[in-house]
């Protein structure tokens, strides 16, 4: 297993998950809910930034590896799943929507793994619709974690919920897109 800064950043994201989740289970006498919200949102934002940064560094420094390519999306999916489950527990997100988003992530990850085994991983590479879904998902999770007003008179919870529903819609659309692309690969084989 290679070890370099991009892989270290990915491992940090994985290590941040129990800290992120555990924060919300600390007693309010130790840390108030507004501080939990702010700290949790910051941890999630840093994790999202390191996701982009580790990939950038790996490509820039030519430190890409098959292990890094495997671990990076796993770390992302674990952090998103942990955040969504936490938001459901905090009653800030509907459980059915979290199940759809997490289910899609597992389905597409499995599809990508299968296509890679068939030597057709390029056919299910990340598409623009997937990037839109990820952006909406990250914005939604950050806003729902933060909870406090960012813009006076605008409900962060409402905007976060709308962004989460948009992410859910894009989740379904992107899943069908990837499944269609994979089906075309099978027909042409």
UniProtKB/TrEMBL annotation:
The keyword 4Fe-4S does not apply. Gene3D superfamilies: 1.20.120.1760. This is CDP-diacylglycerol--glycerol-3-phosphate 3-phosphatidyltransferase. It catalyses: a CDP-1,2-diacyl-sn-glycerol + sn-glycerol 3-phosphate = a 1,2-diacyl-sn-glycero-3-phospho-(1'-sn-glycero-3'-phosphate) + CMP + H(+). The keyword Acetylation does not apply. It comes from Silvimonas terrae. One of its GO terms (biological process) is glycerophospholipid biosynthetic process. The chain crosses the membrane at residues 6-26, 38-58, 78-103, 124-146, 158-179. It is found in: Membrane. Belongs to the CDP-alcohol phosphatidyltransferase class-I family. It is a multi-pass membrane protein. One of its GO terms (molecular function) is CDP-diacylglycerol-glycerol-3-phosphate 3-phosphatidyltransferase activity. It is an enzyme of class 2 (transferase). NCBIfam families: pgsA (TIGR00560). Keywords: Lipid biosynthesis, Lipid metabolism, Membrane, Phospholipid biosynthesis, Phospholipid metabolism, Transferase, Transmembrane, Transmembrane helix. Its EC number is 2.7.8.5. GO terms for cellular component: membrane.
């Amino acid at each position: 297993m290679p070890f370099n800064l991009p892989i270290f950043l990915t491992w940090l994201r994985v290590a941040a998950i129990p800290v992120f989740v555990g924060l919300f289970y600390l007693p309010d006498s130790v840390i108030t809910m507004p501080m939990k919200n702010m700290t949790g949102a910051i941890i999630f934002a840093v994790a999202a930034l390191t996701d982009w940064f580790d990939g950038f560094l790996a490509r820039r420094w030519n430190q890409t590896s098959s292990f890094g390519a495997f671990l990076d999306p796993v770390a992302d999916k674990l952090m998103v799943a942990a955040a969504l489950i936490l938001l459901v527990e905090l009653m800030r997100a509907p459980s059915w929507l979290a199940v759809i988003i997490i289910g899609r992530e597992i389905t597409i990850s499995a599809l990508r793994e299968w296509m890679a085994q068939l030597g057709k991983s390029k056919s299910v590479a990340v598409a623009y619709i997937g990037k839109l879904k990820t952006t909406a998902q990250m914005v939604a999770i950050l806003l729902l974690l933060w909870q406090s007003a960012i813009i006076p008179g605008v409900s962060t919870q409402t905007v976060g919920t709308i962004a989460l529903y948009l992410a859910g819609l894009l989740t379904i659309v992107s899943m069908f897109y990837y499944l269609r692309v994979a089906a075309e690969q099978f027909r042409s084989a």
